[in-house]
Amino acid sequence: MLKLNQRMVDLGTQRSVIRELFEYGKIQAEKVGAENVFDFSIGNPSVPAPDCVNETAIRIIQETDPILLHGYTSAQGDAAARQMIADSLNRRFSVNLSADNFYITCGAAAALCCCLNGLANPGDEFIVFAPYFPEYKVFIEGAGAKMRLIPADTDAFQIDFEAFESAINEHTKGVIVNSPNNPSGAVYSEETVKKLSRILKEKSEAYGSVIYLIADEPYREIAFEGVEVPYLPKYYDNTLVCYSWSKSLSLPGERLGYVTVPDEVEDHELVFAAIAGAGRSLGYVCAPALFQRVCALCADDTSDISVYETNRNILTKGLREMGYSVVEPGGTFYIFPRTIIDDDIAFCERAKLDYNLLIVPGTGFGCPGHTRISFCVPTERIERSLDVFEKLAKSYR
Ligand code: PLP
């Protein structure tokens, strides 16, 4: 009999709810016409990469020695690219990073896996705040650790500090935060970040071992007017930043991101070595060479996110007028209203079957009674969807 790793078989066969919806949307589009399906299931950027990306890629292809161009880079990434990334962050956040603080990865997913595998010993726990990106559980368990979920602060999608403090124990190795947040769109305020940092410092001292803050930041640059996203290493020394250009430069398929290990991290050279060792053991080798250089050269750039802001404004106002309760997103391209009934799964199923409205139940994000709407779509579709959201709400009255 075939004996496989059952966990992997399960992961490989169970399609996520989001993927299921996305596939359903494609089939429905053939039946009823694409314009009649409101697919708000998936978080794929809907604006093109800025011109800088293709122009730089073409220039590099034309100007670089072809062997170097397509060759391996060092495992932590091309040294010049890492220095350019450091320079960009130093300019923008008044920090003092150098090439040695960076480990370039295949997106934030690989960055998170390198951190988790580099840090975790058997029995370790990582704290995650609901609503959360569901892959965290896969990544944490893949690193042999346990995820401890803190229920959502549904009033503002900041942090329920009471629940957080009581969840920390001698096994807590780290805390993952994601701000701007998928799925709520919330951005942690400076007040939240300061309080979080204070608690982490106190608890690290109390237990006599570092509790790492892992900042998962693929949406850092997608923050709307007037919203500041605090740079976490400035508040807490033992912060590892997992960044990605998937959303900020609309390059999810190119797989580019990095881990930052600042010098302020205790024993930073050892921590860096553990992250590099994890990358090696996971077989990552190095991130795509061409796009390491492209992203580094475009590190100050961002896709035009104005359509996301327009869509956010239309949806927040429109949904509120219809009676949905919504926390206005400070960034990302997601909004996470309360569902009209408590059963978010039934609510999203009705939306799908009766209205061809594809929205994701909050349950999968650890936050029942809510639904995620991905608004990275043309504004015209958002405008036409308002009527559908209204009919859906009215169907419960
Ligand atoms: N973290 C969050 C919160 C995300 O939403 C995503 C992708 O959607 C990722 C990490 C992974 O991003 P990447 O494409 O950079 O691996």
Can you walk through the features of this model?
With 397 residues, the chain is of the alpha/beta class. The protein folds into 2 domains: 17-47 and 304-394, Aspartate Aminotransferase, domain 1, CATH 3.90.1150; 51-297, 3-Layer(aba) Sandwich (Aspartate Aminotransferase, domain 2), CATH 3.40.640.10. 43% of the residues lie in helices and 12% in strands. The chain is built from 14 helices and 12 strands. The strands form 3 sheets. Strands 2-8-7-6-5-3-4 form a 7-stranded mixed beta sheet, with helices on both faces. Strands 9-12-11 form a 3-stranded antiparallel beta sheet. Helix 13 crosses helix 14. It is globular and about 60 Å long. Pyridoxal-5'-phosphate (PLP) is lined by residues 43, 107-109, 133, 178, 182, 216, 218, 244, 246, 252, 257.
Task: Give the bound compounds.
Answer: pyridoxal-5'-phosphate
**Silhouette:** globular
* Terminus-to-terminus distance: 55 Å
User: What number is the mean pLDDT?
Assistant: 97
Q: Give the radius of gyration.
A: 21 Å
If strands are numbered along the chain, what order do they take across the biggest sheet?
Answer: 2-8-7-6-5-3-4
- Main sheet specs: 7 strands, mixed
Helix content: 40-55%
Which class do the helix and strand fractions yield?
alpha/beta
CATH architectural group of the largest domain: 3-Layer(aba) Sandwich
Q: Provide the number of structural domains.
A: 2
Unreliable stretches (pLDDT < 50, length at least 5) are none
Content of β-strand? 5-15%
Q: What is the number of helices?
A: 14
Text of the CATH class of the largest domain: Alpha Beta
**And the CATH topology of the largest domain?**
Aspartate Aminotransferase, domain 2
